[in-house]
Write a structure and sequence with these properties.
The chain is an alpha/beta fold. It is 35% helix and 23% strand. α1 packs parallel to α2, α5 crosses α7 and α9 runs antiparallel to α10.
Length: 386
């Protein structure tokens, strides 16, 4: 193994706007550099990798190894200022000659394996998503065009195997949704644009959409969307007849999850949420992250007025601190009508959202408390926007 100066990735700035690059782009860069070294006998100091958008970027190969039949190197992933668990991870590729013509791509240590159908990848396949697969393949073919007289046509008479690996992938995967998706042994190689945009939470959102896709495949009649880990546990108690895969922890992506349900033909979507998420959904906020999206206590006070709550509850709501505080105020006074009304409003906002896409789907909204007790439950018949 030949070391190469490993420049550490810049620290993330929680308020920054620096763009990074996906695991797919890093894998493609490593594979391109390894292919160049294999056919030239020398490592490039840097490699220019093409992105799915048509743009390019330059990366530096690390931890290089070269022999007669194989070349291996890694890239240090820089996710920019995005809170990505793979920021700083090594993404590696080995390119080796094999008997028989053609190009084969697979995952090695630290890249997960698909064990459940419904993810758009065959069971048993490495968890390298379709766009990164194309990106890696295209960059290897481009490298052959640069360093061999025959270019990609050389694959008509020789074989190449490209293996993507992530040395720390198995540990990192435990911080992702992969175990729940039935992707075992490591992370997924992801990326649709090739870039990671700061605080776009693109990879996070993608994992949620992938989980909805899997849920729709295995439970098309009913998918349960829970806004957090605890609400998901409580949802499983409410619907014990459903398989675990039917439950999706959607985090802040209420709208994206509903849209995915529509796209994958789900017949009934059920939202199980605690008070803050019900409040925000009742206001039509379909991305409900706390940053820049606090609970609106003026809105809550108005809801209390509309349903005839006591003046004491209205006044207390106006000076409440959190959504949970508002819930406690309602419970302490025995005034639960605002909670019921907010859940009905959340359901109506879900119905209107679905109708925007001219879709038909049954909907339910369930408000649970912090111990899992159901405080309010509202159900609609089919929301028909056609």
């Amino acid at each position: 193994m030949v070391p190469c100066m490993d420049m550490p990735v810049p620290p993330r700035n929680r308020r920054g706007m620096r763009t990074g690059f996906t695991t797919g782009t890093n894998a493609a860069a490593a594979a391109r550099a390894a292919a160049m070294a294999l056919f030239t006998g020398a490592w490039p100091e840097t490699v220019t990798v093409s992105l799915p958008t048509g743009e390019t970027t330059t990366m530096t190969p690390l931890e290089r190894r070269l022999d007669a039949d194989a070349a291996s190197c890694c890239m240090r992933k820089d996710a920019g200022d995005d809170p990505d668990v793979t920021h700083g991870a090594l993404i590696c590729a080995t390119v080796r000659r094999t008997p028989g013509p053609g190009l084969r791509l697979d995952g090695g240590p630290g890249v997960g394996r698909v064990t459940l159908p419904g993810l758009g990848l065959p069971v048993g396949e490495a968890a390298i998503n379709p766009v990164p697969r194309r990106q890696i393949t295209e960059n290897v073919l481009a490298a052959l065009g640069e360093v061999t007289p025959e270019g990609p046509a050389i694959l008509e008479r020789i074989g190449l195997e490209v293996i993507i690996s992530v040395p720390d992938g198995e540990r990192l995967a435990r911080k992702t949704l992969n175990p729940r998706l039935g992707i075992v042994g490591g992370i997924s190689i992801l990326g649709t644009s090739g870039k990671v945009y700061p605080y776009s939470t693109a990879a996070w959102r993608h994992s949620v959409l992938q989980a909805v896709q899997l849920a729709a495949y295995h439970s098309p009649g009913r998918v349960v969307l829970a806004t957090g880990a605890r609400s998901e546990q409580y949802a499983m108690r409410l619907f014990p007849e459903l398989p675990d895969v039917a439950f999706v922890e959607i985090s802040v992506f209420t709208g994206a999850a509903l849209r995915a349900c529509i796209n994958h033909g789900v017949r009934e979507a059920i939202l199980v949420a605690m008070i803050s998420r019900i409040i925000k959904t009742a206001q039509g906020r379909m991305v409900t992250h706390v940053a820049g999206n606090p609970v609106d206590f003026a809105f809550l006070a108005q809801v209390c007025r509309e349903i005839g709550a006591s003046p004491e509850l209205i006044a207390a709501t106006e000076s409440a601190n959190t959504g949970r505080h508002f819930l406690e105020l309602c419970q302490a006074r025995g005034e639960l009508a605002p909670l019921d009304h907010l859940t009905a409003m959340a359901l109506e906002q879900m119905r209107q959202f679905v109708q925007r896409f001219h879709a038909s789907m049954r909907l339910e909204a369930i408000l649970v408390d912090f111990d899992g007790a159901v405080l309010a439950r509202k159900r609609s018949e089919e929301s028909d926007g056609r």
